[in-house]
Amino acid sequence: MDHPVFDHEGPWTEDAYLALPRTDRVEVVEGTLLVGAGTSVERAAAVAAVREAVSAALPDGLQVRGPVALRLSPDCVLVPDLIVTTAGDEEEAEQEQAAAESERDTAGDKPVGTVGGDEVLDASAALMVIEVIGREHGAVDRTFKPQLYAGVRIPYLLLVDHHGPFAVAEMIISGRYHEYARAQGDEPLRLEEPFQLDLDLNAVAAPPVTAPATAPEETQTVG
Question: What DSSP state is assigned to residue 18?
Answer without folding.
Answer: H
